[in-house]
Amino acid sequence: MRPLAGTATPPTRVYSGYVLLCLLLGYTFNFLDRVVVGVLQEPLRNEFSLSDFQLGLLGGPAFAILYTVTGIPIARWADRGNRVFIVSLAIGLWSAMTAVTGLAASYLHLLLARIGVSIGEAGCSPPSQSLISDYFAPERRGTAFSIFALGVPMGNLLAAVGASWIAFNYGWRVTFGVLGVAGILLSLLIRLTVREPQRTTPPKAAGRLIPAARYLFGKPTYRFVIAGTVFAALGGFSLGQYLTSYFVRVHELNLAAAGLSVGMVTGVAAGIGTFSGGVLADRLMKRFPTAQSWLPGIGVALGVPLYLTGLFADGPRTAMIFLMVAVVCHFCYLGPMFAINQSIAPPRMRSTAVAILLLFVSLLGLALGPPILGALSDFFAGMTIPAESALRWLCLDIEAGVSCTLGSADSLRAAMMIMVAGDVAAAICFLLVGRTLLQDREEHVPV
User: Fold this and answer.
1) Beta bridge partner(s), residue 404
2) Under the phi-then-psi rule, with left for phi > 0, alpha for psi from -120 to 50, and beta for the rest, what region is 315?
3) Cα separations (Å) of 361 from 96, 278, 322, 369, 438?
4) Would you say residue 2 has pLDDT above 70?
5) Phi, psi angles (nearest 5°) of residue 88
6) Which pLDDT score, from 0 to 100, does residue 444 have?
7) Residue ranges per structural domain of the chain
8) Beta bridge partners of 384
9) Which of 3, 109, 186, 225 is the most buried (most CB within 10 A)?
10) CATH for 13-197+209-440, among 3.40.50.2300, 1.20.1250.20, 1.10.760.10, 3.40.50.10470?
């Protein structure tokens, strides 16, 4: 193991594990504060009289645009500067803006507060993944990145269960305040207890952005990783934002009960899929060197029919069970794709490789997914569909010869079903990664 900066002593496994735990908590709050708007969007919709499209803008472009614009400069800074300082500063900034969200008096105020959150959150993932790469050897990174990626389901779980419970009992404004204060305390813990490790490449070797991007995009593996992750995120972000609304509108659960169901899907099930995907890929690599590619491809493909079955289910329990299995399959891609992304990037470009990946995921997945789903839901809600129409499947309770005007429940379910289609393209891209993965790796991975 490489020594820490300024010392000749390599970090112990215990300390490396502690660092990973701190970064995992930071990534958890990163997603918790990102997705909490989706969990709380029903009370937000009622208070500010918002349409589904406006909710989609709040969870998508309002967050994604500046998150994307600031992500690459911050990543370039992380390739040269103190990554621990950057991570702690970022957590403190977005947590403060999360608290400010609870003071919003209008839809415009909500949008501005979400933009502030996005600027801070751009400083989390690239330097965190770069730190993990310096604390863990290549043969252990698949597992390490899967543990780090658990921040996604853990954040979703805390948002769905914890935030919904607080909002149900004390209101949505208190919820944002509690999350903001907790995040600020975490930022102080990381700044005071985590040390910057020695880099495998001197900071001055980071190079310029355009040559780095040209080098990375010259690798087919990198292009397919980006494409597959974008398609997976398109459906994942949009369904994730509206899943609480789905259980409230379609299955008529209250906010706390809906939050518990969503927590089981986006928290427990996503956690199982995320962790098992990385661990299983690491083990399979001993016999199948491209397992990091085809395992996510198969998993994401299997999730599509399971998603559709869950969305069509009559009762909330059946829906939750099928959606949980679908999410386990879907989220097995996170750890392996993070690991592949780092293995094909030179050490001096690791943060940049993550930032470019997140740029495309944010602009094409997060920024577009929720508003597209919201616009589809609003569109279907205004449609009148005759029984003989080819689109009659959109109206689930239609009877022969009777026209049906879709309500917000069925229109939302129909829009969610359409967004699932992106996973088919994601699966194809992940499978194509395996064709060039071995030749594009920058590091030898022991098998």
Assistant:
1) 385
2) beta
3) 25, 20, 26, 10, 24
4) no
5) -65, -40
6) 46
7) 13-197+209-440
8) 405
9) 225
10) 1.20.1250.20
**Token pair of 375 as six digits:** 């616009």
Is beta strand 384-385 parallel, antiparallel or unpaired with respect to 404-405? Answer: antiparallel
Mean of per-residue pLDDT scores for the chain: 84
Residue in this structure with the two tokens 């614009």, named with its chain if needed: 69
Of residues 229 and 441, more confidence is placed in 229
Percentage of the residues of the chain whose pLDDT score is greater than 90:
30
